[in-house]
Amino acid sequence: MIRAVLLFLVFVVETRVQAQLVPPVRQDGFVYPPGHRFDPDTILIEAYFDPVCPDSRDSWPPLKQALHHYGSRVALLLHLLPLPYHDNAYVTSRALHIVNTVHANATFSLLEGFFKHQSLFYNAQTQLLSRPAVVEKIVELGTVSLGNSYQSVLKSGFSDKKSDRATRVSFKYSASRGVYGTPTFYVNGSSEPNESSICLCVNDVRGSVIIRIYYLDKRYIIFQIINTELMEILLDYVIITSLISYAISLTLFQVLDCATKQT
C-alpha cells in the first residue's frame, strides 16, 4: 500500500513538473528590425501576434511605420500566440519558426505574406481541408513570398520536431505573461498605462473612436484606439512622432476628457 502511494506521489510530482513552463534555451520572440541590438535607452515593444488574426494584421503596418521612424531608439520583439479558435494559427506560427532558422528577414516577409493572403487560412476557407493540405498551401505561399529555395526548407521543417517545440514554447511563454488575445503589446515590460494621459475623439471610417495617448519618456505613445460603439480594441501601442501631426492625419475633431467618454 505504501509503495503504491509513493508511486502515485512520484507520478503527480513528475506530471506537475512537466506541466510547468520550462525556460526557453533562447529568448522567445523575433527581433525587428532583424539584427537590432538593444541598449538601456532603447524603448522595447513586445507584440503578441497571431498570423491569422485580422487585428494583428491591421496593427502591423502602423506599428512598422513607427518603428522605422524612430530607428534605433525603438525596437520590437514579436511573440507568437496561436489562438485556439483560429484553426490554422498554430501551423502558420510554426512556419514562421521554420523560416527563422534560415534568415530572420524571412520571418517577417512570410508574416506579411500571411497577412496579405490571410483569408486563405480562415476557418471557413479550410474547414474541408486536411492538415497536410493546409501545410501544402503554406509551403506554396512561402515559396511565392520567399523564393523557391524555401520550398524544401518549409517541407522538411514541418517534419522536424524542433519547429513544433519552438511553437509550443512561444505559446506557453505568451500564456505565462497573461496574454490571451492578439494583438497585445507591452512597452518596456509593462502593459499598464502611464498616469499622464489624454484622450482624443476622432472620426474614422469605422466610426467614432477614442485614442488614448500616454506620455512616456518625452515620447507620445498611443496605447489604445477604442471603438466607442463596440468597445473593441482596434490598435495598441502605436508610437507617433508627435501629438499634433498624428491628430491631423486622423482628422482630429476635439480633445475630450477621457473619463467622461469611457464611462
Automatic annotation (TrEMBL):
What's a single GO CC term here? plant-type cell wall
Record-linked CDD domains: DsbA_family
Q: Report keywords, A-Z.
A: Membrane, Signal, Transmembrane, Transmembrane helix
Work out whether the entry's keyword set contains Transmembrane helix. Answer: yes
Against Gene3D superfamilies, the record matches this protein to: Glutaredoxin
Q: List membrane-spanning regions.
A: 234-256
Q: Which residues form the signal peptide?
A: 1-19
In Swiss-Prot or TrEMBL terms, this protein is called T4O12.23
This chain's source organism reads: Arabidopsis thaliana
Give the taxonomic lineage as stored in the record.
Eukaryota, Viridiplantae, Streptophyta, Embryophyta, Tracheophyta
